[in-house]
Amino acid sequence: MRWASARAAAVITALLIAIGGWVVQAPAASAAVTASCPSVRGGGSSPSTAKVIKHPQAPVRTGPAAACSVIDYVPYWHTVYKWCSWFNSSTGNWWTYTNWGWIYEGNLDGYLAPGCP
Hints:
Layout: H1 2-19, H2 26-35, E1 48-51, E2 57-61, E3 70-75, E4 79-88, E5 93-98, E6 102-104
Antiparallel strand pairs: 1-4, 2-3, 4-5, 5-6
């Protein structure tokens, strides 16, 4: 009896796999994250300094959007160098490319840097 149950389970598993009953969609989730992180080139020729005003620290992201991955954190009142700023029209927020990476402008003091190329 035990052998028959194990064999039946194996047959059902093989059938489900063969007809696509078990579908894994993990790549679609990662593609959605990539699609919502804009690809904007940072740069500039004359950086300005700014202090981090986000307490206790400001996240540094791979791109100019909250959907982009966090790669580091800059401590409160630390000096960063602003290279360029970019307006994310889909969220209505300004982001600044710094010597650390992309930081939301609301976490920095001072004025906007020149526009990103």
